[in-house]
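Kindly draft a sequence, keeping tokens residue-aligned:
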Amino acid sequence: MNVREQNKAIVRRAIEAGWNPANLAVIDELYAAGFIFHQESGEAVRGLDFFKTWIATIHGAFPDIRYQIEAMYAEGDKVATRYTVRGTHQGDFRGLPATGRSFDLSGHLIHRVVDGKKTEGWGIWDTLGLMIQLGVIPPVRLGSGAPPPDTAANIAATRRLFEALSSRDPEVLPTAIDELMIPEFVTHGDALFPLVYGRDALRQAIPRFKAAFPDATATIQRIFAEGHKVMVHVQVSGTHDGEWMGVPTTGRRMNWTASSIIRFNSAGKMAERWVIEDEIGVLQQLGRIPRFQGQGG
């Protein structure tokens, strides 16, 4: 494990084994005695007494509080953490008696880790959201915010993309890609094609696939949307009439499945995709690898 991953593990353990159960022994283990914490106000406090008091206060007010790590990023001796925190207000918090209300908020942390110890931290969480959710102040809105996702339009765009994949017209799919995707579109793939950055890189891969399977069709079997994401499961069929995956033309009729989760931005453009295809099935149908014992189908 490299230093970055070691530092992430230290921060993760502090949150999951220290903060969540209020285990002060873990805090002593992972924090330097002279730990400096920079609060939301910009004020810095030194030493663990303040931090331990804060943990006790939080758990007294919100006994079921749980921090969940959503993402971590590290460089050098710094680790950044994005988290969500949830709990129920069951005790006094900064003079506010228990309301019985629950909250669900997000926050960010940056820690400096030196020789296996946290030496410095910067933190901020959505305290305004906390006060609103606890009913202390009414909701505050600046502007109307982003419009809600148009799930019907996103599903229609996804259908158009797969209909274009099935077209024999060589211009239809590139045109659909240009019109439906942002230039920085990212594809997160599987073992054979793990990551593709950019709409142009995706366009460049099309001629190879269409040359290998000129009659390819993609039939949507299931499609639905939630928020800004569309989930789609397709059946792909085509005749192997050109080189693919190092295998020359076999003339075989092939079938395989693929599943994608496509994220749309607030403007209704495709921004990111996670896709997994039955690549092992493709390789077996091409004759590159044998079927293995116990394989279904």
